[in-house]
Structures are given as C-alpha cells and as structure tokens.
Amino acid sequence: MPAILVAAPAAAGTSPLHTELKESGPAADTALEASPDAVTLTYTTDVQLALSIVTVRAAGAGGAVAPAGDLAYLADERHDVLVLPLSEPLGPGSYTVAWTTAGPDGHRISGDFGFRVEPPVEETRGDPPGAAAAAVDSVTNVGNVRRETAQAGTAVSGSRFPFSRTFNRLVLYLGILALLGAVAFRFLVLGRFARGGKARDVVLAATRRVSLAAGLGLGILLAHLPLSLLHQAAVLFPGDMLGNLRAVATGTPWAVGWWMQLAGALAVAMGLAVAGKGGTRHAGWRIVALGALTIPFSPILSGHGWADSPRALSAAATYLHVVAAGGWVGGLACLLFAGLPALSGRGAGDCADAPGVAGMVAAFSRVARIAVALLLVTGAVKVWIHVESLSDLWTTAWGRSLLVKDVVVAGVLALGFYNWRFVRPALERSPRIGLIRNPATIELLLGAAAVAVTAYLVAQPLS
C-alpha cells in the first residue's frame, strides 16, 4: 500500500509497453482481388523471432497450410514487424492466419484472423448475379464471428488463474529468497554478531544451519532449471515441445536469463564446496554471494522487468526489489531456523534467558530496515512504470492483484514495526527467545504470501 501511495500521483502519466497485434497485412476480415505476396504482422512492441510461429491455412475443417518461406523481421531495425513470405499464390477462397509470438517479457501471446481472396466479378463467370457480393458479405460475417470468438477466448484466458506459470515463478522466487537470505544472514547478521564479541559456538552452529538453507535454495534452483525449460517450450510450442527446446534455450532474453541462473547456481555450488561441511571458510561464502547475486537477473530477463519502459530503470528496480526481498524474507527465515535454534542449543529454551538473542535480533533488524526501505522505493518505481492510469489498480486483474499484494505487505510491515518498536526493547530487558519467535513466524508467513502473490503478478503477460 505505501508503494501505491508514493507512485499514485504520477501513475496516470506513464505508458508501459503492452505487446499486442497492432495491424496486419492483409487486414483482418478483408477481401482481396489477388493473392498477397506475404503476410505482415505489426506489433506494439518488439517481439522475439525465435519464439514466433505464423501459418496461413485454408478456412474450414482440414484446411491445408499454404506453402511459405522463413518467417523474418521486416528489417534489422524493425523487430516489431514479422513477415511471412508466401511461396505460392493463394487461390480464391477464405484463409486463416494464426500467429504465436512473445514480447520482451517472454510471455506467449497468440491470435488469428481471417481474410479472403476474391477475384473481380468478371473473372468468375458462371456465378449467379450478386454471388460475389454475397460471398464477400459471408466472409465478413464469418470474420466478425471469428474475431468476436477470439476476443472472448482472450478474455477467458486472461481471467483464468495461470497456475503453471505462477508455480514456475514461485519455485524460482523461493530458491532465490533462500539463497539471498542465507548470504545476507551470513555476512550482515552473523558477521555483525561475531564482531560484537558474541559466543563463537553460536556463530558456528548458526553458520552450519545457514549453509543448509543455502543448499536448499541451490537444490530448488537446480530442479527449477529443467522444469522451467520444458514449461517454456510447452507454452510456446505445444505441438513440438522437444523439437523446439533449442529455440527456447538460445537467442532470446529469456534464454539469457536461464543461462545466468545456471551459471549462478554452479557458482553457488562451488562456493558451498569451498566453504566446507560446516560452512566455516569465508572464501567459499564470497563465491556463494557472487552466484546468489547473479541469479536475480533471471526473473528480470524473463518478465516485466525487461518489458517495461524505460527498460534500464525497470530492470534496476526489479533487481533491487528481488535482492531486498531476499534479504528481508529470506533473512527472517534464517533468523528463525538458524539463528534462534543456535542460541537455543546453548541450553536456553524459549522461555529461558538466552544471552545474545537481543544482539542477533538487533543485527537482523538493521538489515530488515534497509531492505524494507529499498522495497518501498523500488516498488513505487515499478508501479509508476507499469500502471498506465490510476484506474488500472481496480479495473484490471493485474491492478487488483497488486492491491492484494500491498495489503499483505502492509501486514508484514505492521508486524515488522511491532517487532522493532516493542519486541526489541523487551529483549533488552528480558532476553527470551519466545518473545520474538511467534511474531517473527507470523511475519514470515505473511512474507511468503506476498511472494506467492508476486509470482502470480509476474506470471501474467503484459498484453
């Protein structure tokens, strides 16, 4: 909610990039006197040639596909126009152009339209008077029905919960948050805790648990890589999934992000190996940090961060937003499942005094405050870039989902403020782990809910 309030005054002046079919040649539902030499499709943004398919098929059940050349861009500098040259002239009759492509965000969009090749009346001797005009009227009516059906299908598709895309994104985000949280907790929380002269055995015990969290995040991301590749191929090329894996994995921004995720995951694996079984070697954690900070580029190159304009600002805001979320939500998970158990392991139960708990919570609180501030600023930037008008917040599915996310985030902020304003002072007076465990657990659950809503938002195409 705070992000919306910051961005709302300027929202009406922004114009995000929405990938849609702008015009075509031949135009939809037109009758041509002669066969076109090519089909030209002009979109509102650049599209990805490697993820595009265009076919021309004779109308009717079992209509043959018209022979065509290779699909190409109109020119090197015009990646918003696709051209499909026709190898042979089309005979008289009705035809359907079916197209599939992806905009800068990598999301699949598709559609179809019809046109008719109708030679002049003098070339169709033997037809009853008025037959050509009736045929044109018939084609126009059929085209209108086809267009209305396609629009209705788009509306239904847009309102359907994109489960597979959302799940794919959620798995990616959970892996990233686990890794970034482990790195943030290892360097910024345990590092500060150790410099404060706290017990070394607590630091070592917490480090071992943080290493497990990083390993869990790495496992999630490694499992996500083949699943993501197969999912993208299935979405864009459902008829020939395996045959088009190479097209999906090469030559597109989405593919670059996929390879960066793989490179980052391999770097994390190497770093954990260097850090050792207990995660005690500092050099290994530096490699882990480098790999973990590389992986957030993956969702940028395959989502709205690469599609919105200005692209540089959008990508930077998205990257910092993901990193801040990882430091806060992932770090909070490490506090609950690594830091506090390490303190409890010294013989202090939830209700007993646990020297050092106040210092550890204070170290994490500092990280959380910086992360929250970064989240609010970058969230406001993303809303300002992405929302075309203020009314989009309640008239579109994306906007309403954003409102739901902000309500959840507001709950997380409220709990975070409570922990900072009331729990921390109470821990200074009475260092009991139980004071922080329950509110922090609720905060983490709300943070996970916010991540799930974000996965749904990013899974929606911009069109």
Features:
single chain; 463 residues; alpha+beta; four-stranded antiparallel β-sheet; four-stranded mixed β-sheet; disordered N terminus
What features would you describe in this structure?
The protein has about 475 residues and is of the alpha+beta class. About 60% of the residues lie in helices and about 10% in strands. The protein has helices at about 1-10, 130-160, 165-195, 200-235, 245-250, 255-275, 280-295, 295-300, 310-345, 355-385, 390-395, 395-430, 435-460, and strands at about 20-25, 30, 40-45, 55-60, 70-75, 80-85, 95-100, 110-115. Strands 1-3-6-5 form a four-stranded antiparallel beta sheet, with no helix packed on it. A hairpin with a 2-residue loop joins strand 5 (about 70-75) and strand 6 (about 80-85). The longest helix has about 35 residues, at about 200-235. The chain is elongated. The protein starts with a helix and ends with a helix. The model is unreliable at about 1-15, about 125-160 and about 345-355 (pLDDT under 50).
Short structural description:
Helix content is 61%, strand content 11%. It is α+β, with helices and mostly antiparallel strands.
Rg (CA only): 28 Å
Q: Helicity range of the residues?
A: 55-70%
What's the β-strand tally? 8
Strand arrangement within the widest β-sheet reads 1-3-6-5
Can you lay out the helices and strands and say which pair or pack?
Layout: H1 2-11, E1 21-25, E2 31-32, E3 38-43, E4 53-58, E5 72-75, E6 78-85, E7 93-102, E8 108-117, H2 131-159, H3 163-195, H4 200-236, H5 245-249, H6 253-275, H7 282-294, H8 297-301, H9 311-344, H10 357-386, H11 392-395, H12 397-429, H13 434-459
